Amino acid sequence: MKILSSEITPYKTYLNRRKFIKGSLASALMATVSSSAFANHNNNSSIYNKYLNESDKLNSYEEITTYNNFYEFGTHKKHPHLNSGNFKPRPWTIKIDGLVKKPQTFDLEKILSKVTIEDRVYRLRCVEAWSMVIPWQGFQLSELIKMVEPLSSAKYVQFVTVFRPEEMPGQQKRTIIWPYREGLRMDEAMNPLTILATGLYGHEMPNQNGAPIRLVVPWKYGFKSIKSIVEIRFLDTQPETSWETLAPWEYGFYANVNPNVNHPRWSQGTERRIGEFKRRETLMFNGYEEEVAYLYKDLDLTKFY
Amino acid sequence: MFSTRNFNRSKPVLFILILFPSLLWAYQFVIGNLGVNPIEKLMDELGLMALRLIIITLMITTLSNIKPLKSIVVLRRMIGLFAFYYVCLHFSTYIVLDHFLDMQFIIQDIIKRPFITFGFISFLFLIPLASTSTNNMIKRLGYKLWKKIHYLIYPVAILASMHFYVLVRADKTEPVIYMGIIILLLLHRIFKRLTRPQLAQ
């Protein structure tokens, strides 16, 4: 059974509730004001919320912001929350280059002034077999892609995270090859489920969750949803991605959530939903099969994991 | 100062110190104070404690080669048994809390996942060690056989550290440090054996 979209708190209500959320209230207010000055908000609950199941309860703001994988701030789950205080998400620019008609560097504010921010409540499934339900605010990646007009030869999109070792202490150590890089096939990037998120729970994106702007691809393992993006590149060949480069036998380019293809070191058949005691069965494409299965109908998912 | 008597005297204090973390974590688990993913946290803490205790038992043997510290060896049994205690808690957290007694899944997991296999074998090898730890058992088995059985601590330590190493996704510094310590301790034993004066036939 699907939940009613009316059961999901819309953006306006988050804004009103924001003052109850723990954390730096003053900066949160400032930041929200600055971005809402530039962005339009769609106050109708997104149609995509209907893809949640009845048992998908929102995770709390505290859970979402204190248990993170963001190795730029350290490899423990609590590190991003503890070590991201010095990170400065404003001002921010995003460089668009590669196979596009208009390569350019955008101020984030400029992008936000041209898009409509909406709510998207998505399940997030980590490759480590835990999951959450997160109320994001963001806009469809396809909006930005249309804006910059990629050439017809562009088949892939690559994303790059900011490299600032002085603000991101995890980058001072070579745990992975910095900067973090991710990629999508063009049709995946254009899929209406794929968003660039700029907030959660009506709050500016917290540093530990990928401020100020990050990708969210809900049918793929969390590591595909690259954080703190500074560069988007359009390519005709499949780009290298960070985890695939580090351990290609464990992490593929596609990284679709798939309970039938196990990680070599652990099963992907079940997951722990944060806040729940018993494990859940993992759903094919993280439960977004209806929306995305067609993208992979000609692909052997055991080979292209 | 480092007399057998003093080491024996320190035992009750050590007992409480080593037992305490398990009680604290159990309490924190019950009141919901172990963070956002408490089962994972509990399992990690228990496992890491067990590995550290296993390494400490190896260190004690090495330290007891230093003349003035000879008597420290009287602490080894208690710490070894505590290592077994923490391994048991770690393993039962995995079985009961993490997988809720889903035996089919657990057996698959043990067979298919190398890191679970390493951990499981390590646990199995600790059972004979723990069950032959009494004075009475040493007497019954004879010291020579008892000692042979207790060489199992070497594969236990190596497998336990591999269990940790394989599980970590990217920053392997911590497991590598533990492996390094274990290798140094084992090298010291081999060196000692090679340089030992031959006994007259």
Quick recap:
Chain A is of the alpha+beta class and 305 residues long.
Structure description:
The complex is a heterodimer of chains A (305) and B (201). Chain A is an alpha+beta fold and 305 residues long. Chain A is 20% helix and 22% strand. In chain A, a hairpin with a 6-residue loop joins strand 12 (270-273) and strand 13 (280-281). Chain A is globular, with a radius of gyration of 18 Å. The model of chain A is unreliable at 1-7 and 15-37 (pLDDT under 50). Chain B has one domain (4-195). Chain B has helices at residues 4-31, 38-63, 76-98, 103-112, 114-131, 135-141, 143-150, 153-167, 173-195. In chain B, helix 2 (38-63) packs parallel to helix 9 and helix 6 (135-141) crosses helix 7 (143-150). The longest helix of chain B has 28 residues, at 4-31. The A-B interface holds A 62-63, 66-67, 71, 75, 77-78, 128, 130, 173, 175-176, 246, 262, 265-267, 269-270, 272, 274-275, 277-279 and B 35-37, 39-40, 97-100, 105, 108-109, 112-115, 166-167, 169-171.
Taking pLDDT < 50 over at least 5 consecutive residues as the criterion, the unreliable ranges of chain B are none
Architecture (CATH level 2) name of chain A: Alpha-Beta Complex
Number of domains of chain B: 1
Largest sheet of chain A: 8 strands, mixed
* Amino-to-carboxy terminus distance of chain A: 29 Å
Low-confidence stretches of chain A: 1-7, 15-37
Q: Work out the strand percent of chain B.
A: under 5%
Mean pLDDT of chain B: 93
Query: What is the CA-CA span between the terminal residues of chain B?
Result: 38 Å
Helix content of chain B: over 70%
Q: Helices, strands, pairings?
A:
The complex is a heterodimer of chains A (305) and B (201).
Chain A: H1 11-17, H2 25-38, E1 40-41, H3 61-66, H4 79-83, E2 93-98, E3 104-107, H5 108-114, E4 116-125, E5 130-140, H6 141-148, E6 156-161, E7 181-185, H7 186-190, E8 195-200, E9 203-204, E10 214-216, E11 229-235, H8 242-246, E12 270-273, E13 280-281, H9 289-292
Parallel strand pairs in A: 1-4, 2-11, 5-12
Antiparallel strand pairs in A: 2-3, 4-5, 5-8, 6-7, 6-11, 8-9, 8-10, 12-13
Chain B: H1 4-31, H2 38-63, H3 76-98, H4 103-112, H5 114-131, H6 135-141, H7 143-150, H8 153-167, H9 173-195
Helix pairs in contact in B: 1-2, 1-3, 2-3, 2-8, 2-9, 3-5, 4-5, 5-8, 6-7, 8-9
